[in-house]
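Researcher: First entry.
Model:
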Amino acid sequence: MQRQGSIGGSAAIRIRATGGVLLVAHLAVVAWLMLRPLDVPWVTPPNLHPLAGIRADLALGWPQAARRIGEGLALLAPLGVLLPMAHGRLAVSPLASLIRTAAAGALVSLGIALLQTGVPGRVVDVDSLLLNTAGVIAAHLVFVPVGRARLRRRERRQPDEGTEARSVTVQEELSQGRTPTIPRVGIAP
């Protein structure tokens, strides 16, 4: 018996597997991009003041600021789609899904920032954490509700092949055989 609200049958396996593979591939590319040492003559101090780096980017002019801010937004944005895709549930609260995905994106971004402290030429920037999380949230809001609605419509149109053939009760699914018993031993007089 399938979980309530999960995608049924082989479609679920394909979607989860594809999401998992793409998630691992994306994280590998991000790790390669962000954790490589940089050969620079000097290193700027870490930015621990929220929005200070974004203000500095805006002071450079709109084309340069748009490129830098866009890079920050786009780096982890695919996680906003890949995390729910790897999870594979259709009937889930949109707010709960958004919060889980945003929290996971923020934790991945924080992990990258912490790992960068040991990489030569890389410094911690709290604005990259904010931009990466905002990118994850934006991608989730744009793509996930539409994708889930499309998958729910497709599931309603073509029911799973195996659902009518065999009906399994919850008790049958949860049962794993007889419960082992320990023989009672009386207390000696």
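Researcher: Second entry.
Model:
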Amino acid sequence: MVGLRGSAATVAYGSTKWAVRGMTKVAANEFAEHRIRVNSVHPGYVSTDMLKANSEASNDAGTLATPLKRQGTPQEIAALVAFLASEESAFITGAEIAIDGGWTL
């Protein structure tokens, strides 16, 4: 979630996410001549084991900060990745796709 908007006290984590954005653009340019598409997926609060390390209050706050007022599911992320890997997305490259319930709005 930090990858598409800055958040206080997340310099190390945020830096790596911003790096993914840059690498997506550079790799998409470099590999386009080989017809290789490169896109990045930026999930928001997704109901996974990673969130279990957070306090319930922290997870509740993250969920409430999400305009859709819920956590995503791993299946929703997988469906987006499957679409990007399919020929249905053949004209998409260099995209940064937020799947975050509107958190980055």
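Model: Note on the second entry: The beta strands are 40-43, 96-99.
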